[in-house]
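Supplementary Methods. Inverse-folding protocol.

Structures were first reduced to a discrete structure-token string of length 383. This string, shown here, constituted the complete conditioning input.
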């Protein structure tokens, strides 16, 4: 790796929070996974080692993606979306598609299992950013210009619901709606899209009995009908938070990770961290995520101020993807939202999620690098 070429990433405003999140996430997974790793593999460090490998791969992905110019992304964003649609279709293929707990969300590539929805969310952000720049006048002045990208994305949403992956739908549509709103669409168009999203979400929630049961368990998790059923994960998560108190029970000393709380090293890793490090540790972990999000929003603001609208829309979409995923995961962990399988960026175990998160950071690093000066002083306009 050329150290001189890497120098601008090192001084990038996202570098420090990104590196801190990687290190803390590795520590979280290492601690939360010891019990299940020892039980299934005989090696308590099994998941820690794998996460370390994913971490190193994530560093390489970040560096590689940060070398791709925005001009090139602008030429490929439509193809990126089409590729992600193909991935969402292939998850239903008998050999390539991989099913876990009744959901077909993964593509089995042999070395790693890739969650197709992770790529679809990022692809949607790029597509909408490019569309808003290329068709800005049409989007802001006519319903046709507004409805065309929405119709295409509804097809992506349908594929996600068939997997099913309702959490990815919420995150994707949240990012797209934020981009459209800040892209200057008319209020009527925006609220129509918002209304359609809410209606579709309500229909999706009521269409499957297990989602209705989760909603009922969320409303009253300690009810005897739910506490050992659909409300089990939530109650065990709340017990973990309660045991943590102010300073926690000590790093590595969690009881809930010993087969009481399912998915302790993935979806509920934050609950285990709160149990072991207490309220102070939980706030510190969230503080790092807020630090990263604030840096991304500042990059988006800088890009917008300097006239780089394409870059600004991408950064806004990525910030929203990160923010919604953090909000939903933490909300589920503390009982503010119904239980939903959604990873916590950088903290949950999993190569697919970590690599995409690192890729998104690399993209925003590139944006910060290219948009540091006003558009009129640069060589290429991404319009």
């Amino acid at each position: 790796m050329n150290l001189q070429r890497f120098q601008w990433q090192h001084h990038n405003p996202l570098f420090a929070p990104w590196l801190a999140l990687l290190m803390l996430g590795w520590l979280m997974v290492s601690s939360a996974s010891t019990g299940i790793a020892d039980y299934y593999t005989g090696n308590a460090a099994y998941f820690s080692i794998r996460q370390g490998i994913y971490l190193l791969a994530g560093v390489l992905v970040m560096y590689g993606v940060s070398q791709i110019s925005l001009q090139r992304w602008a030429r490929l964003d439509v193809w990126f979306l089409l590729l992600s649609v193909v991935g969402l279709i292939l998850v239903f293929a008998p050999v390539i598609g991989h099913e876990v707990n009744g959901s077909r969300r993964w593509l089995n590539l042999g070395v790693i299992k890739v969650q197709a929805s992770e790529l679809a969310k990022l692809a949607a952000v790029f597509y909408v950013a490019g569309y808003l720049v290329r068709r800005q006048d049409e989007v802001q002045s006519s319903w046709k210009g507004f409805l065309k990208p929405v119709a295409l994305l509804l097809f992506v949403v349908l594929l996600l619901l068939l997997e099913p992956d309702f959490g990815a739908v919420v995150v994707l549509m949240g990012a797209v709606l934020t981009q459209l709103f800040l892209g200057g669409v008319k209020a009527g168009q925006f609220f129509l899209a918002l209304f359609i999203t809410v209606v579709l979400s309500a229909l999706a929630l009521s269409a499957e009995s297990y989602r209705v049961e989760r909603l009922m368990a969320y409303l009253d998790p300690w009810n005897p009908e739910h506490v050992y059923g659909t409300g089990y994960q939530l109650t065990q998560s709340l017990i973990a938070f309660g045991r943590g108190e102010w300073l926690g029970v000590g790093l590595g000393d969690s009881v809930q990770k010993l087969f009481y709380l399912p998915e302790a090293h993935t979806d509920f890793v934050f609950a285990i961290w709160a149990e072991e490090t207490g309220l102070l540790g939980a706030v510190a972990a969230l503080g790092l995520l807020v630090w990263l999000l604030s840096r991304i929003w500042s990059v988006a603001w800088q890009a917008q101020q300097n006239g780089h609208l394409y870059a600004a829309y991408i950064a806004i979409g990525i910030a929203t993807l990160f923010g919604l995923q953090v909000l939903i995961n933490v909300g589920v962990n503390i009982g503010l939202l119904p239980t939903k399988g959604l990873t916590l960026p950088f903290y949950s175990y999993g190569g697919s999620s970590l690599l995409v998160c690192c890729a998104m950071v690399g993209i925003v690093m590139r944006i910060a690098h290219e948009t540091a000066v006003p558009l009129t002083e640069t060589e290429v306009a991404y319009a």
